[in-house]
Design a protein that fits this description.
- Helices cover 17% and strands 48% of the residues.
- With 474 residues, the chain is an alpha+beta fold.
- Strand 2 and strand 3 form a beta hairpin.
- Helix 1 runs antiparallel to helix 2.
């Protein structure tokens, strides 16, 4: 440094002066005594200056060393890690801590349905006498999902859509999970209970616009979306789960005593990149009806929800308990996929209200992806996922997304003894266009009928319906 060089020059001059004066003859004349004394004073002064210069030089060198060490530490120290903002694999905007153990994501889905009915009641006693088409927001959800300390997950989702044009925003899901005890996962809150294969499949990924009628009748007893506590576990080729459930989401406090239990287990003896086979079974047991002993009503709409009227139902049953057993079979072979479920219902009425009731239902469906993509098995849910186009739609590059055709037959029979809830049959044809992993368009045609009688006679109906859906979800 320039300052230190100047100090060194002063020091050199001072030392030289001291040396010269020190070498002066000892036998100087007395008249020079005063001069000698002055010189000695000057020497003393110069010695003090030399000592001060040495101290300054030492201090400057120490500061240089300290600065050099600080510079080297700044170069070698790791950068301060900060939070990251990114898009998840499903294109959810996500904020994560630097170690990715704490994340929060926005999630949303919008399903806009439109369609119409050709509805033909069998008699004037049929209820309803007409079904009205139009357009509805079947689902309009927005919320957050996230992870905390890696093992905790949470979700809070609000719903603004609904069947038959239902209005109002409600809390749809709010749950917390813990997965620190591998391979187990503990669930608690308001959630979509993973009961049956069709219900375990997200409505973002189901092949048809609505799940099959027997699935919805069974889930409406003690599953679907409701308060619950349970545990699941899975491996690559198996899945198992059991839940204790309470009232459905959005129900009033009058329904608080409703309690049920569900269980599901699946096994895949075949699981390769080109083929799979799933075998499973489910059980459900309702201990208490939603409002005590008189509110269990097995019912459903036809497999299109634009009109909210139900044309199938047993009416309120004074029950002691209800039980559902079901079996699952599904698989894939290349771009072809199929699945089916069978349901056996038993309802035990309170003493003095008649004998027990037995109902049943089933569905079978299959689909083929024309553009060659495959439906993959999802180990975490024990179900099959959606279709992700290998060439998303892009007018510039010539990508046309993925196209799928599908067909389904479903039946649910709620007629037994003195209860004539109706027998519904539906044949549904579907065409799906997957624009990309987040957007798809669906088209369904339904040909169905309800055979139903009551004290007034034939109250059944025949119908055809055509509908479409525009969906975006992330």
């Amino acid at each position: 440094m320039q300052l230190h060089g100047t100090m060194r020059n002063h020091l050199t001059m001072a030392i030289a002066a001291v040396s010269i004066l020190a070498g002066a003859p000892a036998a100087a004349q007395d008249p020079a005594a005063s001069k000698l004394e002055a010189l000695q004073t000057e020497i003393s002064k110069l010695q003090k200056e030399v000592a001060a210069l040495k101290m300054d030089i030492t201090k400057g060198e120490q500061e240089d060393v300290r600065a050099a060490k600080q510079g080297a530490a700044a170069k070698t120290a790791p950068p301060v890690e900060a939070t990251t903002i990114r898009m998840s694999s499903s294109n959810r905007p996500t904020i994560c801590s630097s170690d990715s153990q704490n994340c929060i994501s926005l999630t949303s889905r919008l399903q806009l349905d439109f369609g119409g009915y050709n509805y033909l009641p069998n008699t004037a006693a049929t209820t309803p006498q007409d079904l009205v088409g139009g357009a509805i927001a079947r689902r309009a959800q927005f919320g957050i999902i996230g992870t905390f300390l890696d093992d905790w997950e949470y979700s809070v989702v609000f719903e603004g859509g609904g069947s038959g044009g239902g209005a109002g925003v409600v809390l749809d899901k709010a749950y917390l999970t813990y997965s620190g005890f591998k391979p187990f996962k503990i669930w608690s809150g308001i959630l979509s209970v993973p009961y049956t294969l069709d219900r375990a499949t997200s409505n973002n990924n189901i092949t048809f616009m609505e799940r099959a009628a027997p699935v919805e009748v069974a889930a409406g007893i003690g599953a679907a979306t409701r308060s619950g506590f349970g545990i699941t576990a899975n491996g690559r080729q198996w899945w198992w789960g059991a839940f204790l459930t309470g009232p459905a989401s959005g129900r009033t406090s009058h329904d608080a005593r409703q309690t049920a239990a569900t269980g599901r287990a699946v096994f895949l003896p075949v699981l390769t990149n080109d083929a799979s086979l799933l075998i499973g079974g489910d059980m459900q047991y309702l201990f208490d009806a939603p409002t005590g002993a008189s509110a269990l009503n097995l019912r459903d709409r036809i497999e299109m929800r634009i009109d909210g009227n139900r044309i199938l139902g047993t009416g309120a049953l004074p029950i002691d308990s209800a039980r559902v057993l079901s079996a699952e079979l599904a698989g894939t072979l290349g771009s072809f996929h199929f699945q089916g479920e069978y349901f056996d219902f038993n309802v035990e009425r309170l003493p003095g209200n008649g004998p027990g009731l037995d109902f049943n239902g089933y569905y079978v469906q299959g689909g083929y992806i024309l553009t060659g993509e495959k439906r993959s098995y999802n180990t975490s849910s024990g179900s099959y996922g959606g279709v992700v186009p290998s060439r998303p739609f892009d007018w510039k590059t010539g990508g046309w997304g993925a196209w799928e055709i599908a067909a389904r037959y479903s039946m649910v029979d709620l007629n037994d003894k003195d209860v004539l809830g109706g027998r519904q049959e539906n044949l549904t044809l579907g065409l799906n266009w997957y624009v990309n992993k987040n957007i798809r368009f669906m088209f369904n045609y339904i040909n169905g009928r309800v055979k139903q009688r009551n004290s007034g006679g034939d109250v059944g109906a025949n119908y055809q319906a055509i509908s479409g859906r525009a969906q975006i979800a992330f």
